[in-house]
Automatic annotation (TrEMBL), chain A:
Pfam families: BPD_transp_2 (PF02653)
GO CC term (a single one): plasma membrane
Protein name per Swiss-Prot or TrEMBL: ABC transporter permease
Residues spanning the membrane: 30-54, 61-81, 101-120, 127-144, 150-172, 184-203, 235-254, 290-310
CDD domains: TM_PBP1_transp_TpRbsC_like
Principal localisation: membrane
Single GO MF annotation: transmembrane transporter activity
Compartmental location: Cell membrane
InterPro entries in UniProt: ABC_transp_permease
Membrane protein topology class: Multi-pass membrane protein
Keywords annotated in UniProt: Cell membrane, Membrane, Transmembrane, Transmembrane helix
UniProtKB/TrEMBL annotation, chain B:
Any single GO CC term annotated in Swiss-Prot or TrEMBL for this entry: plasma membrane
UniProt-listed InterPro entries: ABC_transp_permease (IPR001851)
Protein name: ABC transporter permease
Membrane-crossing segments per the record: 12-32, 44-67, 79-98, 104-127, 134-156, 187-205, 276-297, 309-334
Domain of life, per lineage: Archaea
Main location: membrane
Record membrane topology: Multi-pass membrane protein
Assigned keywords, A-Z: Cell membrane, Membrane, Transmembrane, Transmembrane helix
Gene Ontology MF terms in the entry: transmembrane transporter activity
A Pfam family matched in the record: BPD_transp_2
Subcellular location: Cell membrane
Length: 401, 351
C-alpha cells in the first residue's frame, strides 16, 4: 500500500514535470535539453546494440536466436565511457582539457546565437587562430628568457594573437551579412573550407616543419606551453579558470550592459534596433567578430595546452561547440555543464574504443543526434500533448491510473 | 520563359574563375609555361574525367534545388551523399555474401533507398515537428559524418572499405565510334543518368504542374493551399527527391571508385557543400547548377591532370578552395541569390 502511495507521489511529480515541459517557458529549455540528451542516448544505445551483431568479437555478451551473437553491451559501453572520463586523476585531467576547449568554442557559437546569428565557422576561426598562435610563439620564444617570466609574456601574446586572427576571420562573414546580406550560415561554412585550405597550404609549403612529411609546424618551446596541473595530462587549470571567467563575463555582458542588449537586438530585430538609434549593421559585425575571437582563442589554447604545435587535422571542436551551445540553450552559463558533458563524452569514447572496440565515432553520432532532437522542441510538446498534458488539449482523464 | 543568356552573375563567375586560374598560375613555378600546358590538357579524356567528377556535385545541387524550391532548405546534402556512397559500398559488400551475389545495380538502388529514408526522416523532423531546418540539416550532415566511419569500422575494422567492384563502362553504339569525341559516349551509368537528369529536372520544374506546385510551395504556400493542393505533400516530395538525387550522386561516386573511404571528411569531401554553392550560383536552375558543378569538377580534373603530365606542383588544396571562394564572391558582390520567399518557414494550413 505504501508502495502505491509513493507511486502516486512520483506520478504527480512526473505529471508536474511534463506539464512544465509542455507549458513553461523558463524551465522549458532545460527540460528539452535533458530530454534531447535522453533520446539521443536511447538511439545511441540501439545503434551500439545492433552494431554488436555485425561486429566480430571473441566473447560476445548476448546470443539471440536468429540474429547471432551480440558483441556490445550498451550499459557496459556507457559505464566504460563514464569511468574512462572520471575514473582516475589522469582521466579527469583529459576530460577537463576537452571541457576547456569546448567552453571556448561553445561560447563562440553562443555569442553569435545570442545575436540571432548562426556561426558555423568556429572551426575555421579556430584553425587559423591556432596557426597564428603557433607561428608567433615560435618566433617570440627566441627573444624571451626561458623561465616563468618568459611564459608570462609568451602565453598572453599567444592568446591575443589567436583571438585577433580568429576575430578577423569571424568579421568577414559579419561584414558580408551586414552589408551584402549574405546568409551567415552559407558564408561561414564556406569560410571553414577556405580557412582549413589556406592553413594547410601555408604549413605544407611555406611555414611548416619541412623536414617531416606530415603537415605540421615545429613544436613550440616549453615557454609557450601552459603548465600542466595533473600529471599524465596536459590539462592546465589556468586555461580552465580563464574559460570560466570568460563565460561569466559574457553572461554579465548580455545580462547587465547596454552593449550586450544592443548586440542582441541588432541581430534579432535589425530594423527595430535601427529605429531605436542603434547601429545594427556595426553590431552584427561586432557579434561575429567577438564570436571569431573566442574561436581563435580556442585555437590558441589548443596549440599551447594540447598539441604544442599546429598540425593538419585539428579535431572538430568548432562543430562540437555548436552542439555545446545548442544544448546549453545558447546561455553562457549553461555552456559550462554542456561543455563538461561533451568533454567527458569525448574522453570516454577513447576508453570505449580501446577497451571494448566500439568505434569512438559513436560520440560524433551522439553529437548529431543531440543537435537534431533539440532542433525540434515541437516533438517533445507533441509527446506531452499526446499524453494529455499541457494547454494544447483538454485533460479529461488526467487522474485515471 | 527567358532565353538562356549570359547574365551578369554568370559573367562575373567566369571572370572569377579565370582570375583564380591566373592566380594559381602565378603561385607555382613556371607560371608562364603553365598556360600552354593547360591548353594541352583540354582533351576528350579530360572532359570525360571532368564529367565523371561532376556526378556527385550536380546530383546534390539538383536535389538541393527541389527541396529548397518547395520551401525546405536542405543543407544536409553532404550527409545524404555520404549515406549514398556508404550505402552503395556496404550493400554491394553485403550482397556478395548472399545467394543474390554482388549485383551492382541492386546495390545502387539500395543506396538510393537508404539516402531517401534519411531524407524522409529529415522531412518528418522539419515538416511534422517544425524543426529549425538549418540546424536539422546540419545534424543530418554531422550524423552521417559520424555514422559512416563508425559503421565502416564495425563492418571492415577500419574507416575505409576494401575494393568491392565498380560500374563497368557502357558505350553507346554508333556514337562511341565517332572520331575524336567518341570517348565521351563511353562512360559509366551514373554519367549517363546525369545526362538524363539535367533536362528531366529542368522540364519537371518549368513545364509540369508538379513544377508549378513546387514553385508555389516555396513562394506562396497560402495560395497553393487555397487551390486545394496539400503543401505538406509537395514539401515531402521535394525533400524526398533531394534524397533520391543525393543517393544517385553518392552511390555514383562510390561505385565509380569501387570503395568507400571514411577517413577525414570521407570520400565525399565537401562535394555536397560544393553542390550547394553550385545551385546558388546557378540561381536555382538545374541547368545553371549543372554548369557550375561542371566548372568546379573541371577545375578538380585540371589539377589532377596537370600533376600527372606536367609534373607541376599545383597545390590541390588551393584548387580545392576555388569553389568556396567563388560562391563567397558571388554572394557578396553579385548580390543575394533569390531564395524562395517562404523557404525555411513552416506552413500551417488553417483547418
Amino acid at each position: 500500500m505504501s508502495d502505491d502511495d509513493s507511486g502516486e507521489g512520483l506520478r504527480a511529480q512526473g505529471l508536474a514535470a511534463l506539464d512544465r515541459l509542455v507549458d513553461a517557458t523558463a524551465a522549458e529549455r532545460i527540460a528539452i535539453s535533458l530530454a534531447s540528451l535522453g533520446f539521443a542516448i536511447i538511439v545511441g544505445t540501439v545503434l551500439v546494440f545492433v552494431s554488436g551483431f555485425v561486429a566480430e568479437c571473441r566473447d560476445p555478451f548476448i546470443y539471440l536466436p536468429g540474429l547471432g551473437f551480440g558483441c556490445y553491451n550498451p550499459l557496459e559501453v556507457y559505464w566504460t565511457m563514464f569511468i574512462g572520463s572520471f575514473g582516475s586523476m589522469t582521466d579527469i585531467g583529459q576530460t577537463l582539457l576537452q571541457t576547456t576547449l569546448l567552453l571556448f568554442t561553445g561560447l563562440s557559437v553562443a555569442v553569435a546565437f545570442r545575436a540571432g546569428l548562426f556561426n558555423i565557422g568556429t572551426q575555421g576561426q579556430m584553425v587559423l587562430g591556432a596557426l597564428a598562435t603557433a607561428l608567433v610563439v615560435l618566433e617570440l620564444a627566441a627573444y624571451v628568457p626561458d623561465n616563468a617570466a618568459g611564459m608570462l609574456i609568451v602565453i598572453p601574446v599567444g592568446v591575443v594573437v589567436g583571438g585577433i586572427v580568429g576575430g578577423f576571420w569571424g568579421m568577414i562573414p559579419g561584414l558580408m551579412k551586414a552589408y551584402a546580406n549574405a546568409h551567415e550560415v552559407i558564408t561561414t561554412i564556406m569560410l571553414n573550407f577556405v580557412a582549413i585550405g589556406i592553413a594547410f597550404w601555408l604549413v605544407q609549403v611555406h611555414v611548416g616543419d619541412l623536414t617531416t612529411d606530415s603537415v605540421q609546424t615545429e613544436s613550440v618551446p616549453a615557454v609557450a606551453r601552459l603548465p600542466a596541473t595533473i600529471s599524465g595530462s596536459r590539462f592546465s587549470v589556468i586555461a580552465l579558470i580563464g574559460a570560466l571567467l570568460v563565460a561569466v563575463g559574457i553572461y554579465l555582458l548580455y545580462k547587465r550592459t547596454v552593449i550586450g542588449y544592443d548586440l542582441r537586438t541588432s541581430g534579432i530585430q535589425e530594423s527595430a534596433a535601427e529605429y531605436g538609434g542603434v547601429n545594427a549593421k556595426r553590431n552584427i559585425v561586432t557579434s561575429m567578430t567577438l564570436s571569431g575571437v573566442l574561436g581563435g582563442i580556442a585555437g590558441a589554447i589548443y596549440v599551447m595546452m594540447v598539441q604544442y604545435r599546429w598540425q593538419a587535422g585539428i579535431p572538430p571542436l568548432g562543430f562540437d561547440g555548436i552542439a555545446v551551445s545548442i544544448l546549453a540553450g545558447n546561455n553562457p552559463i549553461g555552456v559550462i555543464p554542456a561543455a563538461l558533458l561533451f568533454g567527458s563524452l569525448k574522453t570516454g569514447s577513447v576508453a570505449v574504443d580501446l577497451s571494448l572496440g566500439v568505434p569512438g565515432e559513436l560520440v560524433e553520432v551522439l553529437r548529431g543526434l543531440i543537435i537534431l532532437f533539440i532542433a525540434m522542441p515541437e516533438f517533445f510538446r507533441m509527446i506531452g500533448k499526446r499524453f494529455g498534458y499541457g494547454n494544447g488539449s483538454v485533460v479529461t482523464d488526467g487522474g485515471e491510473a | 520563359m527567358k532565353a538562356p543568356s549570359v547574365t551578369r552573375r554568370q559573367g562575373l563567375l567566369i571572370g572569377g574563375i579565370l582570375f583564380g586560374l591566373i592566380t594559381l598560375g602565378l603561385l607555382i613555378d613556371g607560371g608562364g609555361q603553365l598556360i600552354g600546358d593547360v591548353a594541352g590538357v583540354f582533351s576528350v579524356s579530360y572532359l570525360a574525367s571532368a564529367i565523371r567528377l561532376t556526378v556527385p556535385i550536380a546530383f546534390a545541387a539538383m536535389g538541393g534545388i527541389f527541396a529548397e524550391k518547395t520551401g525546405v532548405i536542405n543543407i544536409g546534402l553532404e550527409g545524404l551523399l555520404i549515406i549514398g556512397a556508404f550505402g552503395a559500398v556496404a550493400s554491394l559488400y553485403a550482397l556478395s555474401a548472399t545467394p543474390i551475389g554482388a549485383n551492382i545495380w541492386l546495390a545502387f538502388v539500395l543506396a538510393i533507398v537508404a539516402s531517401t529514408i534519411v531524407a524522409l526522416l529529415f522531412a518528418i523532423v522539419c515538416i511534422e515537428f517544425k524543426a529549425d531546418q538549418i540546424i536539422a540539416g546540419l545534424a543530418v550532415w554531422l550524423i552521417a559524418l559520424g555514422f559512416a566511419p563508425f559503421a565502416s569500422i564495425i563492418i571492415w575494422r577500419r574507416t575505409s572499405s576494401p575494393s568491392v567492384g565498380t560500374f563497368s563502362t557502357i558505350s553507346i553504339p554508333g556514337l562511341s565510334a565517332l572520331p575524336s569525341i567518341g570517348p565521351l559516349f563511353e562512360a559509366t551509368p551514373p554519367v549517363f543518368l546525369l545526362a538524363l537528369a539535367v533536362p528531366f529536372s529542368w522540364y519537371l520544374l518549368n513545364r509540369t504542374t508538379f513544377g508549378m506546385w513546387i514553385e508555389a510551395s516555396g513562394e506562396d504556400p497560402k495560395s497553393l493551399d487555397t487551390a486545394g493542393v496539400d503543401v505538406r505533400k509537395v514539401r515531402y516530395a521535394g525533400v524526398l527527391l533531394s534524397g533520391v538525387y543525393c543517393g544517385i550522386g553518392g552511390a555514383g561516386l562510390a561505385l565509380n571508385t569501387g570503395q568507400f573511404v571514411g577517413s577525414g571528411d570521407t570520400m565525399i569531401d565537401g562535394r555536397g557543400w560544393i553542390g550547394l554553392t553550385a545551385y546558388l550560383i546557378g540561381n536555382y536552375n538545374p541547368v545553371g547548377a549543372f554548369l557550375a558543378s561542371f566548372l568546379f569538377a573541371g577545375l578538380e580534373a585540371l589539377q589532377l591532370q596537370l600533376q600527372q603530365i606536367a609534373g607541376y606542383d599545383v597545390s590541390s588544396t588551393l584548387v580545392g578552395i576555388i569553389p568556396y571562394v567563388a560562391v563567397l564572391i558571388v554572394l557578396t558582390f553579385v548580390g543575394r541569390t533569390r531564395m524562395p520567399s517562404a523557404a525555411g518557414e513552416h506552413y500551417d494550413s488553417d483547418e
